[in-house]
Amino acid sequence: MLERARAFLAQHWAGASLVFTERPGHGTELARRALDAGCDLVVAIGGDGTMNEVAQTLVGTSAVFGLIPCGSGNGLGRHLGIPGPGCGAFRTLLHGRPRAIDTGTVNGLPFFNTMGLGFDAEIGRRFNLLKRRSLVHYLRVGAGAFFRFQSEALTIRNGIREVATRAMLVTVANSDQYGNNAFVAPGARVDDGELDLVAVKAIGFFGLLPLTARLFLGSFDRSSSVLHLRGCHFIIRRDAPGVIHTDGELHETGAEIDVSIRPRSLRVMVPA
């Protein structure tokens, strides 16, 4: 990947810089420096976490975000049709077109693909500890955590209705998938001005397998175990503070979770 990136820059953008992130949050700092230097295209090479760090700096600006997706899931890249390295990702930077997409925010934290709490955040925590990451590892981590995780009481409001439920997992999605073509919110679009909330009620082991299959068959939201709401603003209340994730990165937050959207606030280079 490194040599491919260097060769691309040498051939097409000799004046561009290739800079490595060194710590959490460093991508945000580097993107800010690029903006301050007058760059009109800022590119992230990495997974959803790197994507989030760089993209959040470009929200609301005229700069275009370029993505070379090479993480374990690449949810946003897959949704936008951005190919991986070696399959046309670098060519997209040259011959693609800017597309304006929505930005989600949760308690002030931006996300571009998904945010989640409950079992969703717990899987993210365990997955981030792995040295090797793939769909198989993700499913293995999820199965291992399933029997130790308890559902929690939640109240969810979207401005139209209020729902009280017990759920083991809540995902708010901007795109239609987690990554790896696991479609948690079939039909969701990143530029429709709405977010899709998916809550999974408490299920047993025999309910887990068919629900997992639905993720890859595009029918997850049609399960009787799944609550699906759309809206531009959600308030989620739980009994106590806890962990959430934004594009796979974990954060401690309060018992009330405020999720909203900034329509078409980020310009992303996508295939023409």
What can you see in these coordinates?
The chain is α+β, with helices and mostly antiparallel strands and 272 residues long. The chain has helices at residues 2-12, 26-36, 48-58, 75-80, 89-95, 119-128, 135-146, 205-217; strands at residues 41-46, 64-69, 97-106, 109-111, 114-118, 152-157, 162-173, 195-201, 226-231, 233-238, 242-246, 249-253, 256-270. It has 2 domains: 2-101, 3-Layer(aba) Sandwich (Rossmann fold), CATH 3.40.50.10330; 109-264, Tumour Suppressor Smad4, CATH 2.60.200.40. It contains 8 helices and 13 strands. Strands 1, 2, 3, 4, 5, 6, 7, 8, 9, 10, 11, 12 and 13 form a 13-stranded mixed sheet that branches. It is globular, with a radius of gyration of 18 Å.
